[in-house]
Amino acid sequence: MRVETDQGYKDSPVRPDGSPQEVAAPAGPAAWLKVTILKSQQGRPGLTGAGFTDIAIPGVQVTRMLELPSDAPREGADSTVYSLKRGSDPGGLSAVAAETGLHRQFTAGQAGRYTVAASAVPVPGEALDKLLFELTGERDKILVSADSTARLGTNLSARNLTDGDLTTAWIAGDRPVLHLSWPKKTQIGEIVFAAAGGISTRPEQVQISSPDGTAVAAVDENGMARFSPITTDRMDITISRQAPLAVHNPFAGGQLQLPVGLSEVYIPALEQFRSPQPDPEKEFSLPCGQGPVLSVGGTLMETRAEGRIRDLTQRRPIAVSLCSEQSQVELGASTHTVEAGDAGPLAITDVTLSTGETKAPAATARTVDVKESDGDRRTLTVGAGEASYLQLHENHNKGWKATLNGKELTPLRIDGWQQAWLVPEGEGGTVTLEYEPARIYQAGLIGAGVLFLVLVGLAVVRRKGSGPTAGSHEGSPEGSYEGDEQQVPPGPGLILGTVALTLVGIVIAGPVALVVPVLAVLAHFRPSLLAPVAFAAMAAAGVVVAVTTGEFTATDKGAFGATAQLLALIALFAALVTVGAAPSRGRRRSGRGTEPVAATAGAGDGGGDPTIPLQAAQPSGRTLSADAKRPRTDPPTGGPDGPTPPPGSGGSTG
Which of 142, 260, 418, 639 is deepest in the core (most CB within 10 A)? Predict the structure, then answer.
């Protein structure tokens, strides 16, 4: 990596083991610093590449300060509002997109007293758990905290382990350690660890330590752990071994061990100290000084917060205000900073500073009555009023069309994604929403149904007309077992079946298309092997895909790998390759039991071809018998349509 400042740069090697390391930097005073990764380990597809968890500069506090754009000068404005907001994801799956703390800078256009309104969100952790225990007002309960909690959801907390509710859970992070305390010393000899299930595993061994003794206990499949009794009022439980349970991680290309998850830690001796979930509707208020700290212009200001218990447990925004009179602060017409951190149970995410009259003008809302709201056609009525938006909480789609009393409304996109229309001022009426592409889809379904019925009808008519044709062997004896000859349609020739197929293969598969000439040679000498080759290649491709199921697509494995693609192309080429018509071996017969019957001319008069062409024997119309002793009726050799054997042929007519 390279560290560069306005004094120059220095390169340093680093160990890719995640440990803290010191690297060289150019000596001397600097106003800026730039870090560049010059080389990294071979990357894995699907991962974001090399990076750092933290960069610390001795004696320097790095702050990500964002500056608001300056407003154009305005005169006579009734109010001024500065709205500051940051992205936050406390307890979410990934904190990459979340901003650490609120750091904003803006220039006030006019001096005056600004009213400050803020909101904060609960931050999962030990501080929030302690706050919830305090807000319940009950002191004789078990207090539980954890060294780490997995970022797999907002409701995962160690506080859930003693509430008696198996639907709540705690899943450990990188340090599976629990801390429990209760009002008085009690003898403890057994603990039940109820596994949470889902994307977590169960403990197999725990280490228990307290000021009054220690123990190591195995945890059976039912979650029971027994150990020598310890009389104490607190203990730390470290999960030292967990059941092996892993899932495939396609991004890292390996197995991922699941963390320990518990829904309850039940201690029978402490039944009276269990801590049920607090009433979600209970209101709470944090007095001045106990709310999150806010800095305005470099001055730290105390705050108060209020809300409901469910706002804390469900991670909802909580109202925050300054402890000063009317929650106001004096600002001059200059540049100011507003900052807030993430420490504590609450973290400020939104701050609004306003001066003057900020009430929005009163507007009369138009009534909306939904008649039909499902499917591709929806109907609703809109009351009279001013121009307004008709908004759907659905993605914008050009296929939707809205009409008010038969007049088309102007489509709009709200908030960058929502479907909406502009309803003009005036009288209301009936609004019809119709998804126009649905007509094409419905017409396609109807057309497909009609074509299917036509196909069935043609099949029935063809079947009824499949009997003996005019001019067939009218003289065939009743009970003949010979079937009709059916002409086999010719296959594609060498040009289309081999040359053209090779050219197409070169376009789509490059040099792999050279397999087509090889298959063409096989088709010429052993055409019966093409079907087994196609089947075997496609089956092998399916096996390759099944074996590599779960691999990330960018790793060129599975269905996207070279092996599966090559086998599938071989199967396709084997099914399509042809080299022209095969040598004539007579015409195929449709009936079972039919055999070619040849009449050979004897050494009689005439110099014609001594071989008489084979003639088709028409079906007798009788059902074939399974009786092997039933005599076979020979086809007639004479008649109006049949040939008459020449003299000396040995044939006879009856």
Answer: 260
114 and 393 Cβ atoms separated by less than 8 Å: no
What's 93's DSSP letter? S
In this predicted structure, the answer to whether residue 615 has a pLDDT above a threshold of 50 is no
Pairing of strands 177-195, 224-242: antiparallel
The answer to whether 134 touches 319, Cβ cutoff 8 Å, is no
Rounded CA-CA distance 252/144 in Å is: 34
pLDDT for 7 beyond 90? yes
Q: Where are the beta strands (DSSP E) in 302-455?
A: 303-308, 318-322, 328-331, 335-340, 346-356, 368-372, 377-382, 388-395, 400-404, 407-408, 410-414, 418-423, 429-435
Q: At what angle do helices 500-509 and 562-576 cross, to 10 degrees?
A: 170
Q: Which two tokens stand for residue 205?
A: 């061994």
First-last CA distance in the chain: 106
Predicted confidence (pLDDT) per residue in 469-497, tens digit: 544 444 444 444 444 555 656 667 788 88
Which amino acid type is present at position 538?
Answer: M
Residue 607 has pLDDT above 70, yes or no: no
Q: Per-residue pLDDT tens for 291-348?
A: 899 999 888 888 999 999 888 887 889 999 988 877 888 888 889 999 998 888 899 9
For residues 512, 517, 520 and 521, what is the CA-based torsion angle, rounded to 10 degrees? Answer: -120
Q: Alpha-carbon Rg of the chain, whole angstroms?
A: 42
Say if residues 356 and 345 touch (Cβ distance below 8 Å): no
Within 10 angstroms of residue 461's Cβ, the number of other Cβ atoms is 10
222, pLDDT greater than 60: yes
Distance of CA 317 to the CA centre of its chain: 28
Kindly tell me if the per-residue pLDDT of 98 is higher than 50.
Answer: yes
Q: Where does residue 121 rank: exposed (0-12), middle (13-18), buried (19+ CB within 10 A)?
A: buried
C-alpha to C-alpha distance for 205 and 223, rounded to whole angstroms: 10
Fold adopted by 79-123+282-356: Jelly Rolls (2.60.120)
In the numeric block, the tokens 């309850």 are attached to: 264
Q: Which residues pair with 4 in a beta bridge?
A: 9, 34
Nearest-CA neighbor of 25 among 39, 13, 12?
Answer: 12
Same fold for the domain at 79-123+282-356 and the one at 137-273?
A: yes
Dist. CA 260–CA 254, nearest whole Å: 19
| Closest among 247, 267, 265, 245 to 256, alpha carbons compared | 247
Pick the CATH number of 368-438 from 2.60.40, 3.40.109, 3.30.1370, 2.20.25: 2.60.40
Phi/psi at 232 (5° precision): -160, 170
* pTM, rounded to two decimals: 0.52
Q: At residue 37, what is the residue type?
A: I
The Cα–Cα gap between 536 and 545 comes to 14
Of 538, 635, 643, the C-alpha closest to 591 is: 635
